[in-house]
Design a protein that fits this description.
Layout: E1 9-13, H1 22-32, E2 36-39, H2 49-65, E3 70-73, H3 76-82, E4 86-89, H4 96-102, E5 107-112, H5 115-123, E6 128-131, H6 148-158, E7 164-167, H7 175-179, E8 185-188, H8 190-193, H9 198-204
Parallel strand pairs: 1-2, 1-8, 2-3, 3-4, 4-5, 5-6, 6-7, 7-8
Amino acid sequence: MSMSFDLNKYFVMGTANCKREPLLVLEEALQAGITMFQLREKGKNALKGDAYAEFARQCQKLCQTYKVPFIINDDVELALTLNADGIHVGQEDTGIEQFRFLAKNKIIGVSVHTIEQLEMAIANGADYAGIGPIYETSTKDDARAPVGLTLLEEAKSQYTQFPIVAIGGISVENSFIVRQTGVNGVAVISAISHSDNIKEAVNSL
């Protein structure tokens, strides 16, 4: 059984997503009450090697201070090295079984885009699924076509007990509509990382 977690206000971020000092952005978001944090260090100028590991370690420290689960995107090795609270993998990334075997009691999240993928994630022992992108998103270069709210509604009605977080193009303005599908939370990147008032943004989400 994995550690307990709350998907309600799930912040995803890497250095490329921030217009100012990333650790300050993260700390403000933690102070404002995000319930989970995922480090997703992707994009053109993403940190690599030691700089990446060191940045991850600093993010983890902040999350520990505020008692918020620290999740690493896609990097099983780093997640194990840092003893992160969990990992989030996409459809292209394998490694749920490997990670589950090596890391007992860790949180495993999987990105899914169809009901079939959701069923597969559940069967493979994922702890939660991220469904998206719900709307058009500018954060990923290779973003898929939006899956919309219908998939969320379908997923929540078929798997009422399984934790689901919505991601992709979610803003302070549309988060209310997204939540009406019954999802357990919303995951955002720029809604927080580009906000001039992070406290307000997190509260409004």
